[in-house]
């Protein structure tokens, strides 16, 4: 098969293999660190977990992606990318060691969150740099294949790192600090692996005419505003409505996830260890829903159209969320985790398609940057709303109904938008 042949040729490229190794170690460490952070905040026996703590943890994990992400490229086009990988991963190793020390020393929560926030902020530069460096180690003919292989392999590495973190936590007597130390070791390995690449191999090329940093950052902000104005034009209404719908559906998924976290910690389990295993099952089922969406959505969106497929997804969620969530029982909630994974990812694939088709090529990258910000801010906002509404054990019929109502509103409004071209 041509794809298998190209894949073999790709793996023969020495510099590509080394860059892929840096990605696998770096994202594997991310998986370890994120599980350690979640376990410490939610499932530590000595901590009384609250929705506010969960919201804070989600903000730490996601806000750097939203706030730093659009501007990371400006700096990556000025710094040697290989040095970003070396120094960034070494810095994350040191910060992870500091996080472990704060866990052992029972430091104030705000200090722990500052340390974790620094680790995840650096991570944004590493991931963006890995994507920017790829064309420097792969020829143009196989760049699409490399773009498919590398992020997928990185996601699998992060998943494997999360699984390894669960195993280490069980072996090390539920020690979250031991898990963080493992993450620090993997960050160190990623930094050392980066040294196998020549300093100037990954670029960027030096251009003396580049503007000052402050000017470049201000220009980036203006470009993002231009992307918002581009979306506001009537001809791009379909893309704008799809983005709005996806933002609200991401909000719903985040709110339901926080509710599920609290239920697993208190209402559905007798011990933190049992709750952690139950949450792991729910996340695995949600991941299976993401995979199912990748299989089902191309067929469904092809038959119905991307916009109508989003309507179907949101309408199904409106019905299924209260039916599966209001009993507050483990089995229906596990089914809900799978269903919402499928619905959320299916809607995202359809939204990506609409944006790619309706937005002009010259604005597409900037629109996707705005999309990324909306996607993560909606998730953090959902955690904040859930923190205000959830009782200590997580049983909140009001929040379940609110999520269903938002899904229903998305379905109704988007269905009307989809009918407008037919009448015209």
Count of DSSP H/I helices:
15
CATH topology of the largest domain: Growth Hormone, Chain: A
Tally of distinct domains: 2
Q: What fraction of the residues are assigned to beta strands by DSSP?
A: under 5%
Taken in chain order, the helices and strands follow as HHHHHHHHHHHHHHH
How far is the N terminus from the C terminus?
Answer: 47 Å
- The number of distinct β-strands equals 0
Description:
This protein is mainly α and 424 residues long. It has 15 helices and no strands. It has helices at 2-11, 14-43, 51-67, 69-76, 81-104, 109-133, 143-171, 176-194, 213-232, 237-267, 272-304, 306-325, 330-358, 361-389, 397-423. The relative contact order is 0.13.
Task: List the keywords.
single chain; 424 residues; Growth Hormone, Chain: A
Short description:
Helix content is 83%, strand content 0%.
List the helices and strands and how they pair.
Blueprint: H1 2-11, H2 14-43, H3 51-67, H4 69-76, H5 81-104, H6 109-133, H7 143-171, H8 176-194, H9 213-232, H10 237-267, H11 272-304, H12 306-325, H13 330-358, H14 361-389, H15 397-423
Helix pairs in contact: 2-3, 2-5, 2-6, 2-7, 2-8, 3-6, 3-14, 4-6, 4-9, 5-6, 5-8, 7-8, 9-14, 10-11, 10-13, 10-14, 10-15, 11-12, 11-13, 12-13, 12-15
């Amino acid at each position: 098969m041509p794809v298998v042949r190209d894949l073999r040729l790709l793996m023969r490229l020495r510099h590509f293999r080394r860059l892929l190794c840096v990605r696998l170690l770096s994202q594997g460490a991310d998986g370890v660190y994120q599980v350690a952070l979640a376990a410490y905040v939610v499932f530590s026996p000595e901590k009384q977990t609250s929705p506010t703590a969960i919201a804070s943890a989600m903000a730490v994990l996601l806000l750097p992606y939203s706030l730093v992400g659009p501007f990371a490229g400006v700096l990556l086009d000025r710094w040697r990318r290989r040095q970003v990988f070396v120094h960034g991963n070494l810095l994350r190793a040191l910060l992870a060691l500091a996080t472990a020390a704060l866990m052992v020393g029972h430091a104030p929560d705000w200090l722990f969150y500052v340390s974790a926030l620094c680790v995840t902020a650096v991570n944004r530069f590493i991931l963006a740099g890995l994507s920017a460096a790829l064309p420097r180690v792969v020829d143009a003919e196989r760049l699409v294949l490399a773009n498919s292989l590398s992020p997928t392999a990185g996601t699998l590495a992060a998943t494997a790192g999360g699984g390894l973190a669960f195993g280490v936590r069980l072996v090390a007597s539920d020690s979250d600090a031991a898990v963080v130390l493992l993450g620090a070791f993997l960050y160190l390995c990623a930094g050392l692996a980066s040294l196998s690449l020549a300093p100037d191999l990954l670029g960027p090329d030096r251009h003396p005419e580049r503007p000052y940093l402050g000017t470049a950052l201000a220009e980036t902000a203006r470009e993002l505003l231009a992307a918002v104005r581009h979306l506001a034009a009537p001809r791009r209404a379909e893309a704008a409505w799809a983005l709005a719908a996806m933002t609200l559906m991401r909000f719903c998924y985040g709110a339901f996830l926080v509710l599920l976290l609290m239920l697993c910690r208190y209402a559905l389990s007798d011990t933190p260890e049992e709750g952690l295993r139950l949450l792991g099952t729910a996340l695995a089922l949600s991941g299976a829903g993401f995979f199912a969406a990748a299989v089902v959505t191309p067929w469904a969106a092809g038959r119905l159209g991307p916009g109508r497929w989003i309507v179907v997804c949101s309408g199904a969620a409106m019905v299924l969320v209260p039916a599966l969530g209001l009993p507050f029982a483990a089995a229906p909630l596990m089914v809900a985790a799978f269903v919402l994974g499928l619905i959320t990812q299916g809607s995202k694939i359809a939204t990506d398609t609409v944006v790619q088709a309706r937005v002009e090529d010259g604005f597409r990258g900037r629109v996707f940057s705005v999309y990324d910000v909306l996607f993560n801010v909606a998730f953090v906002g959902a955690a904040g709303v859930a923190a205000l509404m959830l009782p200590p054990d997580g049983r909140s019929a009001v929040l379940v109904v609110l999520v269903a109502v938002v899904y229903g509103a998305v379905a109704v409004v988007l269905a009307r938008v989809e009918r407008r071209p037919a009448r015209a």
